Amino acid sequence: MGFTYYPVAPALLALAIGTPASAPPGRKVIKLAEGVYEIEHQDPHDPDASGNTTVVIGDRQVLVVDTGFLPSDASLDIAQIREWTDRPVSFVVNTHFHNDHNFGNRVYLDAFPGVTIVAHAETKKEMDRFGPGSATRMERGAGSLRRMLETGKTKDGQVLSDSDKAQVRDALARRLPAIEAMKKSPFQSATLVFERDFGIDLGNREVQIKFLGRGNTAGDAVVYLPKERIVVAGDLVVFPIPYLYDGYPSEWVGTLQNLAQLDADAIVPGHGPVLRDKAYVLLLRDLFRSAVDQLNVRLGQTSPAMFQTVDDVKSAIDLSLFRPRFAGSDQDLAAEFDAMVKNLINVVFREASLR
Fold it and tell me: How far is CA 118 from CA 105, 132, 210, 219, 223, in A?
């Protein structure tokens, strides 16, 4: 089956911190510190779900980290912000170019015409390249879902069960209104780029915007509040199973190490609940390092990746020891972990083949 949605294990959700404020169904609001909130949107395993949004309120201005995917999510978030403060949202930071973290930019610009949208220079390049075609790609995805229902098979010929078909219908029902909403809200790219770390004073509230290295993308931005000891990591960290479809695994190891060195006791991931310590960040680091190291050993024994295929080397990479550390005894999470590992091996090999 091409896409299966796995619930987050209740025991793992216990890592969330703070007390949820009132929020519409499918959203959870966590107060991280006075004037600092995380908005966790709907099921992180829904491919159309918005990433987490973080709101930082200063004495003069407000900064928002990641504006979500669906315009409706961004509108709800802005309404929530206006309940908290009458100060303007003057800055939006996009942690990376994936649409589930930035397609809400236009909604913020419409609501706050003076807002500055900040992203790393590499992120803006990718936003400009992929952002305007977002609705079209969604429509193609909807077409694929329709064909699956019509044929009763996945693209690779796997027969759909009745349960699979129900999931496809459910995904299609959610996707169609999302496409229409995206058509009505043109993509808004970043208006200010950075390459090195810099700080913003929102009024008795220091915010540091950092580039710790490549990982999930070429321009992952991290937002750090040193006084409050809070770090917003974007999709460098996704809980409980990382998103691995692309990226730079060998460099991601060092980037996560840099992230772990920040003095923080609350880490906002790109998706999933707020983490209270750095154990999961270090677990991700170790997972990626193990995959990279095992591949390098195999390549050293055979030949460079450019002369091989991933099928030639994948048996040499065994990450099964990490499975219980990510999934525990949850079989759904274990299945998701296994799917992620396949992607990780492909990405690690693809990265190695470019050396």
Answer: 10, 18, 11, 12, 11
Residue 213 sits in the same domain as residue 332: no
Q: Rounded distance, CA 35 to CA 85, Å?
A: 9
% of the chain residues with pLDDT over 90: 73
How far apart are the C-alpha atoms of 57 and 73, rounded to whole Å?
19
**23 and 119, same domain (yes or no):** yes
Expressed as residue numbers, the domain containing 343 is 284-353
Phi and psi at residue 223, to the nearest 5°: -110, 130
Same domain, 262 and 310: no
Alpha helical stretches, state H, the chain: 10-13, 71-84, 105-111, 121-130, 134-151, 162-183, 249-260, 279-301, 310-313, 323-327, 331-353
Same domain for 190 and 288, yes or no, is: no
| 268 and 289 together in one domain | no
| Residue 173 CB neighbour total at 10 angstroms | 10
Predicted TM-score (pTM) of the model is 0.88
pLDDT digits (tens, 9 = 90+) for 297-346: 999 999 999 999 999 999 999 999 999 999 999 999 999 999 999 999 99
Report the domain count for the chain: 2
